[in-house]
Design goal:
Radius of gyration: 26 Å
CATH topology of one domain: OB fold (Dihydrolipoamide Acetyltransferase, E2P)
Strand order of the largest sheet: 3-2-1-4-5
CATH architecture of one domain: Beta Barrel
Largest sheet: 5 strands, antiparallel
CATH class of one domain: Mainly Beta
Structural class: alpha+beta
Helix content: 10-25%
Order of helices and strands: HEEEEE
Length: 142
């Protein structure tokens, strides 16, 4: 004589637990961070510089910075208004205008334009980045 299988078997809790564990694992997967809001610009632009260099790292929101190894900026003016120049260096840029890095990847040679606001916000803002050809001089030691 056949006995019908019970509606609830000893394997049902294992199946329920397995499904819940799988759902939990999927929900814990890393999701891309939302892009930070564009900066609220306060104060006048005190200087604008265009410099060539190589992109070291693209911003990775919410904590990342654009890092560029750039050529010297001989006419750089400090917060006291004195022309002091800036040596070749890797520089972090916390704020980048929306769309300024479209088509740019880490390692790309670029011509970068950024604004400086010593008495405003953000202190530096990348407004434009144009990808350069591989043979164009960057003015940096590589």
């Amino acid at each position: 004589m056949l006995v019908p299988a019970p509606a609830f078997s000893t394997r049902t809790p294992v199946r329920v637990f397995s499904c819940l564990a799988f759902a939990l694992i999927l929900s814990a997967c890393e999701k891309p961070a939302p892009a930070p809001p564009p900066p609220v610009i306060k104060g006048a632009v005190e200087a604008t510089y265009t410099v060539r260099g190589r992109v070291i790292r693209l911003p990775n929101p919410p904590l990342g910075y654009l890092v560029v190894h750039h050529a010297p900026i001989p006419n750089f003016v400090n917060r006291l208004g004195k022309e002091v120049g800036m040596e070749e260096m890797e520089m972090d840029f916390a704020w980048v205008a929306p769309g300024a890095l479209d088509g740019i990847s880490a390692g790309d040679p670029v011509e970068l334009t950024f604004e400086v606001r010593w008495r405003g916000e953000p202190p530096t803002l990348v407004t434009k980045a144009a990808k350069l050809g591989p043979a164009e001089p960057l003015g940096i030691r590589e």
